[in-house]
Design brief:
This protein has helices spanning 2-15, 17-45, 79-86, 125-128; strands spanning 62-66, 69-73, 96-98, 103-105, 112-114, 119-121. The mean pLDDT is 83. It is built from four helices and six strands, in the order H-H-E-E-H-E-E-E-E-H.
Length: 144
């Protein structure tokens, strides 16, 4: 029975080559789009889940309109952290600032670091995020 159905389907494909190609192409594009969409959703849902309290961590972005054009910055004004500390609904805040297109070196310039991979953070960074340190102690990381 199955062999007979496969023969009929194959003959139908060969007799209607143009319409079969359109149908198969549409099916392939639809499946590819669906798979890519599912992969994107999975990536979005798994983003930064290595943190223990990932469900309570939010990122603020600044959205503004300049000359009729919508803009989004990944930074917000610095005083917003001071305001957030006075709000009882916000447990903790951390400010992160990155340097772009700058190299950073030690005093005698024996080591030069790529500025695109360096960020300046508040002292509460390692209490909010679960990053492992290569050296040192999280409690005594920022003594001042």
């Amino acid at each position: 029975m199955l062999k007979n159905n496969i023969k009929i389907a194959w003959r139908s494909l060969l007799n209607n080559k143009f319409y079969s190609m359109i149908n198969i192409s549409g099916l392939a594009v639809g499946l590819a789009t669906g798979i890519l969409l599912l992969l994107w959703v999975q990536n979005e849902l798994s983003y930064d889940q290595f943190n223990k309290s990932y469900q309570q961590i939010y990122k603020l972005s600044e959205h503004f309109n300049s000359n009729g054009q919508e803009n989004t910055w990944e930074t917000v004004p610095g005083p917003l952290a001071v305001f957030a500390r006075t709000n009882p609904q916000i447990a903790a805040t951390v400010r992160i600032a990155s340097e772009f297109d700058q190299n950073i070196s030690n005093q005698n310039r024996s080591k030069i670091f790529d500025g695109n991979k360096i960020a300046y953070v508040d002292n509460g960074f390692f209490s909010m995020f679960d990053f492992e340190l290569l050296k040192g102690n999280k409690a005594a990381l920022f003594p001042n």
